Amino acid sequence: MTSTIEAFVVHFGEMGSRWGINRTVGQIYALLFVSETPLNADEIGMTLGISRSNVSMGLKELEAWQLVTLSRKTGDRREYYTTLGSVWDIFKAVAAERRRREVEPTLSMLRQALLSKPSGSEDRYALERMQEMYQLAEQANNWFDELQRLSPESLQQLMNLGSKVQKFLVVKERTRKALRGPRA
């Protein structure tokens, strides 16, 4: 491993815990991401200095996230791993898995809670707040559906529009306030 690749792999390992994966999984992913050719578990373990069992567990986790693909070489019984093609495909896969693990259970819990009858003012207030949270999460979830359908090129264009859209919305808000006039 070159020093540049090693720095990237080490950093990804350190960041892994902040992203909800362990250090080893982050390092395996980073190594696969920057490797020109698919790697087998033995090559991964040897390069990173980790045990075969840790490599296997890490690869299973990455497969669960649908972040790696596996292939075979003719005449070789080993499995070879690589990351998804483009960074946009990776972004979409991570976002989809986080949605499945985090957003969907929260929406489900909120739906259940919102079906209950309030037993008093405290419950009414709590349910109103939960309704606000549900509406926001549902709107974000629907927006995510739309993003998943976009091509990588369209996603990049959308991200490039970010600050321009924000400026447009600020102007729109100022115009709306000016048309309403001063209110006390």
Instruction: Walk across the major sheet and give the strand order.
Output: 1-3-2
Distance between the termini: 66 Å
Question: How many separate domains make up the residues?
Answer: 2
| Beta-strand fraction estimate | 5-15%
Which descriptor suits the 3D outline?
A: extended
Q: What sequence of helices (H) and strands (E) makes up the elements? A: HHEHHEEHHH
Query: What's the pLDDT, averaged over the residues?
Result: 90
The helix content is over 70%
Count of beta strands: 3
Regions with little confidence, pLDDT below 50 for 5+ residues: none
Could you describe the largest sheet, including whether it forms a barrel?
A: 3 strands, antiparallel
Radius of gyration: 23 Å
Total helical segments:
7
Which class of secondary structure composition applies to the elements?
mainly alpha
Keywords: DNA-binding, Transcription, Transcription regulation
Protein name: HTH-type transcriptional regulator
Family: Belongs to the GbsR family.
Pfam family, one: MarR_2
How would you characterize this protein structure?
This protein is mainly alpha-helical and 184 residues long. The chain has two domains: 3-83, Orthogonal Bundle (Arc Repressor Mutant, subunit A), CATH 1.10.10; 87-180, no CATH class. It is 72% helix and 7% strand. The chain has helices at 3-16, 23-34, 41-48, 52-64, 87-114, 121-149, 152-180, and strands at residues 39-40, 68-72, 79-83. Strands 1-3-2 form a three-stranded antiparallel sheet. Strand 2 and strand 3 (79-83) form a beta hairpin. The longest helix has 29 residues, at 121-149. It holds the Pfam family MarR_2.
